[in-house]
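Troubleshooting log. The previous structure file for this entry was overwritten by mistake, so regenerating from the original sequence record. Sequence copied from the archived sheet and checked twice against the printout by T.R.
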Amino acid sequence: PVGPINRGEYDHEWYRKKLSRMFKISGFARGSALLPSNKHMDPAPVCVILEDDAVLVDRFAERLANLLEELPRDFHFCSLGYSRPKAAPMVEYSTHLGIPSCLWYLTGYVLSLEGTRHLIESLPVIGPVDSWIGMKMCSNWDNKFGGLLGVGKFTKAKTSLPSRKDLAQIMKFRAFAALVPLCAQKVGSSSASTLTRDGGWRNKDTDITYSG
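Regenerated output below.
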């Protein structure tokens, strides 16, 4: 007799079908496509995912809508709430969007269907999932552009945004982030002071720039 189907880490087709059923459309990414081959692509449906204890900024829906107007329609992932290692600069992409070189935490983010397919094809997850996502971002900059940007050395980007042509080649994982985070997460205390940049728990880690 045939045994049970193995839903293991390499059963990508099963995961794709499952995620397609779970994908709840929260809006559309309407920015110009990053890849020239996607120039005529329609706006892409997105799914917004938030931690159950995420604290949203005022006018969250309005600010999210502004971000989606700029978010390239062929994006994979866009972080809304995060922490950033100090030696992982963010390069400004547009008014509301940046391109991260590495981020931690998954307080809130936006995914496209193409992004879910990309992540499924990258399975298995190695280590904590937020670290795995962060290292996928970092791998985009394992090249001369990362050196020019100052990845692993500086907090702020040391060069301007590479050309669209270069970005299309660099960004195998097309990950973006809100330049100003749209959500934060309470950690260790329910006190509002933990959501400020001067919160005591944040001062214990000198290597992280926190969102919120």
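The first helix runs from residue 12 to 22. Archived copy saved in two places this time.
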